[in-house]
Amino acid sequence: MAAKYKSYSIGNIHNIPGINVLEDSMIEDIKLVAEIYPFKTNNYVLENLIDWDNFVNDPIFRLNFPAREMLTNEDFEQLRLGRERMSVDEYQQLINDIRVGLNPHPAGQSSFNIPFDNGVKLEGIQHKYKTTVLFFPSHNQTCHAYCTFCFRWPQFVSGLNMKIQAKETEPLINYLKANKCITDVLITGGDPMVMNSRILESYIDTLLEVDSIETIRIGTKSLSFWPHKFVDEEDADKLLAVLKKVVDAGKHLAIMAHFNHGVELSSSLVATAILNLKKIGAEIRTQGPLLKSINNSSNVWADMWKKQVQLGCVPYYMFLPRDTGAQHYFAETLPNALKIYREAIQQVSGLARTARGPVMSVVTGKVEVLDIKNDVYYLRYLQHRSPEETYKIFLGKSKVEAPTWFSDLEYINEEDAHLFI
Ligand SMILES: *Cc1c(COP(=O)(O)O)cnc(C)c1O
Ligand code: SF4
């Protein structure tokens, strides 16, 4: 029988089977925090990934259900009082003000990365690194469930008017044809794997018209949140056939799969989903951020990477949570992050050491922390807006007691000053 997707958000949170194990006050907290951050879950996540007997410490519960601590005490109290006392308009304004204060567009993504074509701004496209363009189709500005730590959270809330999305493909195609150095298109969102096969096909067919494109990447968390997509959903076979067109056209199909914990790789359904993707010639690379209260342990990462390699996936990036939203709640310090990365890498076979990290996506590029010795940070841009800066090692020192982000670091040598902008 075809799998049926059942979605839950704040409106029907009380219909979640088993939700009554949560105390009422906890549900009230979730509702309040969800005024700021989006909340959504589904039957697969609820039934297969969360251990309801121990939900308080469960990594996937924390990954999916907003926690009170994601807001500062001040914002939380303001909201709580505001909900009781303010008019609808005032309350909406308060929500908006809090959201704007949470740096909804980190790493300059709304100002620096949007390309122009003959003076016209290309909406829904980001071009930061020479070879790779990000494409945000308007059809997939949602996900099968939402992550509490998502750095794209403004994509899913209304009223901010900060969504990145493209309503048509023609400007993208013209841009790709005019910039032949672009070899990779990364379809992202949201989760492109919420699209049905018919809509996805129109995007894939259009992209395959561009000869200079060598790789189509698809950024997705559906292997974790809804693996039925590639196995037993009504549209599954058709979807796989559409994806296979990329491989049949002689191009590389790269599934950039988002995982945060080994639990997500443990069901037989996800193993079948991975196998089905590999059968059509896709390569699956995995990435995800290091998060307090969810996966801040080297054993969790080592276990996850081992499972990925066993299932035929290639570990790719360990990110650090970006400077937006509830970063204050999820971010480990840089020394802790490096320790977790290294102790995880030390446990695994060379085949899992393709995972690079810890990595920060910042305005200038992707910064890897290579080492920290005597308070000197050894850093490297894995990607830089200017290709000539890529892969050079440079040094930094911390400006604060417990650095969690690149902006907490500064240069040691004057000649590296431009790398810290
Ligand atoms: C991470 C990222 C990419 C892809 O970088 P790779 O190192 O090639 O995986 C492309 N564009 C943006 C804006 C990114 O943040
Ligand atoms: S699946 Fe990805 S885009 Fe969607 S909420 Fe999670 S991190 Fe954000």
The stretches of 5 or more residues where confidence is low (pLDDT under 50) are none
Task: State Rg.
Answer: 21 Å
- CATH superfamily of the largest domain, please? Aldolase class I
- The CATH class of the largest domain turns out to be Alpha Beta
Q: Estimate the global geometry from the Cα principal axes.
A: globular
How large is the share of residues in beta strands? 15-25%
List all distinct small molecules, including ions and cofactors, that are bound in this structure.
Answer: pyridoxal-5'-phosphate, iron/sulfur cluster
CATH architecture of the largest domain: Alpha-Beta Barrel
Please summarize the sheet with the most strands. Answer: 12 strands, mixed
Q: How would you state the average pLDDT, rounded?
A: 95
Helix segment count? 13
* CATH fold field value of the largest domain: TIM Barrel
Q: How many structurally independent domains?
A: 2
The helix content, as a percent range, equals: 25-40%
The SSE string, one letter per element, is EHEHHHHEEEEHEHEHHEHEHEHHEEEEE
Report on the architecture of this protein.
The chain has 421 residues and is of the alpha/beta class. It folds into two domains: 7-100, no CATH class; 106-349, Aldolase class I (TIM Barrel), CATH 3.20.20.70. It is 30% helix and 19% strand. It has 13 helices and 16 strands. It has helices spanning 24-33, 43-49, 59-64, 73-85, 88-100, 170-178, 197-208, 222-225, 236-248, 268-279, 298-310, 327-330, 334-345; strands at residues 7-8, 41-42, 116-117, 120-121, 125-129, 132-135, 184-187, 215-220, 252-258, 283-289, 314-319, 356-361, 365-373, 376-384, 393-398, 409-411. It has a twelve-stranded mixed sheet with strand order 5-6-7-8-9-10-11-12-13-14-15-16. β13 (365-373) and β14 form a beta hairpin. α4 runs antiparallel to α5. The protein is globular and about 55 Å long. The N and C termini lie far apart (55 Å). The model has no long low-confidence stretch (mean pLDDT 95). The site of iron/sulfur cluster has 9 residues, from loops.
